[in-house]
Amino acid sequence: MGAGLRLDYFLKEIAPLIYNEGVAPAQRYSFEKAEDLTGSLFEEEFGYWYDHKRRS
Fold first, then answer.
1. C-alpha dist (Å) from residue 51 to 18, 45, 46, 54
2. Domain ranges in the chain?
3. How far apart are CA 20 and CA 36, in angstroms?
4. 13 vs 15: CA distance, rounded Å
5. pTM beyond cutoff 0.70
6. Which one-letter DSSP state was computed for residue 10?
7. For the segment 1-56, what is each residue's pLDDT rounded down to a tens digit?
8. What pLDDT does 54 receive?
9. Contact criterion met (CB below 8 Å) for 11 and 17
10. Element housing 39 (H / E)
11. What does the longest C-alpha to C-alpha distance in the chain come to?
């Protein structure tokens, strides 16, 4: 019974701390990418015509 109580304690009290430590970097990465969404998805309008004028 003692081992079962220890396992239960670790699963309820310690495991969430370890899980949160693992999730924090992924969450930070996602937030950073979401903040720069405009910068990473922005495309200049009418780029085709600007490129052809420069080449002429």
1. 52, 11, 9, 5
2. 2-55
3. 24
4. 6
5. no
6. I
7. 689 999 999 999 999 999 999 999 999 999 988 888 777 777 777 777 766 666 65
8. 66
9. no
10. helix 37-41
11. 84
